[in-house]
Amino acid sequence: MEQGSVLPGETARAGSTLPTSARVVIIGGGICGASALYHLAHEGWTDSL
Q1: Structural domain tally of the chain?
Q2: HEC letters along 2-48
Q3: 15-25 in b/e burial notation, b at 16+ Cβ within 10 A?
Q4: Residue 18 falls within a domain, yes or no?
Q5: Is residue 16 domain-resident?
Q6: Domain limits at 45?
Q7: What value does the mean pLDDT of the chain take?
Q8: Would you tell me how many other CB atoms lie within 10 Å of the CB of residue 26?
Q9: Distance (Å, rounded) from C-alpha 36 to C-alpha 21?
Q10: Which of 9, 16, 40, 47 is the most buried (most CB within 10 A)?
Q11: Among residues of the chain, what percentage have pLDDT more than 90?
């Protein structure tokens, strides 16, 4: 099991380092989400999640 993974029925541990805000939030990590984030990063966007 990977360190820091969350099993069903468990909650994430306190101290997770997620940003509190972002200009863009992409929901989904499939080909479309990955492509959208890639192109935003290519254009210089850094405030995205």
Answers
A1: 1
A2: CCCCCCCCCCCCCCCCCCCCCCECCCCCCHHHHHHHHHHHHCCCCCE
A3: eeeeeeeeeee
A4: no
A5: no
A6: 25-49
A7: 78
A8: 15
A9: 18
A10: 40
A11: 27
Q: For residues 32 and 19, give the distance between their C-alpha atoms in angstroms, rounded to a whole number.
A: 22
Contact between residue 37 and residue 14 where contact means Cβ atoms under 8 Å apart: no
And the tokens for 5? 């993974």
Residue 44 lies in a domain: yes
pLDDT at 3 over 60: no
Q: What is the mean pLDDT of residues 11-35?
A: 80
Contact 16, 49 (CB under 8 A): no
The structure tokens listed for 24 are 């863009």
pLDDT single digits (tens) 25-45: 888 889 999 999 999 999 999
